[in-house]
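Reminder: ligand-aware prediction takes two inputs, not one.
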Amino acid sequence: MIGSTRTATAPGGSVMTDPFGRAINYLRVSITDRCDLRCVYCMSEDMTFLPRADLLTLEELGRLCSAFIAKGVKKLRLTGGEPLVRRNMMSLVRSLSRHLQTGALNELTLTTNGSQLERYAAELADCGIRRINVSLDTLDPAKFRAITRWGDLGKVLSGIDAARKAGLAVKINAVALKNVNEDEIPSLMEWAHGAGMALTLIEVMPLGEIGEGRIDQYVPLSLLRARLASHYTLIDLDDNSGGPARYVRVSETGGKLGFITPMTHNFCESCNRVRVTCTGTLHTCLGHEDAADLRRPLRASESDDLLSAAIDRAIGLKPKGHDFIIDRQHNRPSVSRHMSVTGG
Ligand code: SAM
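Here is what comes back for the chain with S-adenosylmethionine:
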């Protein structure tokens, strides 16, 4: 019955199942809404951030993540905002890494803009992180500055180098932006594949007010894929990293190219994910305004019983899917939350 999903104990451990029979085993946690960049499609320039007092402490975030792991989450991604700008965030990573050692968690990973990676890469690897996603939309320094409003491409490239030297596998994520980087996709791909990194392209989504319409940013990946296919041989791959991307192998480069297409083809039928914000709000769908407060049950008791029940209730209400639309009639946010709040 919807609203009353329970965590079941199966031979491999606990499993959370939503009303549509989807096992929920992937948690993304935004550990801060703050970021050191202001990407034009993500935030407005004068973005207001949450008062620090509203944020869960790192200890609370650790407890929250551990409660999800006890309920069957196997893959945990820290994100933001920019996760590496939260002060002392490595203490959270180190504490969560114990779940890798016990085998309760299969993967602990991170999505980052790369600006702070030079400083943290070695320590992340030391904590058992094996692969990370770095968001990078262009290799042109001036364009990078324009997209991020003030970012320094050199710092990100040094961060990527440091990550690879530390033994981390790096996947590059690029949001496809009309008239901005769409022509650069082949060279971005050649660069990534040449360095042994996969590249995933993402369609821009109508999330949050950004001070301009989305229609000028949005380019469907079906179009970019067709353009690539006229120059490269794209071979569909079956492998699924547990996320929303669909992959091809590019014969000419030997590398992997992913497509995340929330606009042209949603991937809700295989959704295994939920997201928690830095204030402890659980969102069971990126494309809905649904929200469950976990901060109150977390703080109400030292035991995790109330928290666990609140998680079950929310998963029992996980929507079947979402449909984003960007066109001239729908040039406003579908969801008021910015990606930096929900966690990408
Ligand atoms: N700061 C980190 C980073 O840059 O990867 C993590 C957070 S960021 C919000 C996560 C991802 O969301 C980035 O790849 C970013 O490009 C993407 N993103 C942000 N807003 C988006 C939007 N409206 N549509 C599609 N992707 C978006």
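DSSP finds eleven helices and 15 strands in the chain. The pocket of S-adenosylmethionine is lined by residues 35, 39, 41-42, 79-80, 82, 111-113, 135, 173, 175, 202, 204-205, 207, 339-340, 344 (CB under 6 Å). We will return to this case in the review session.
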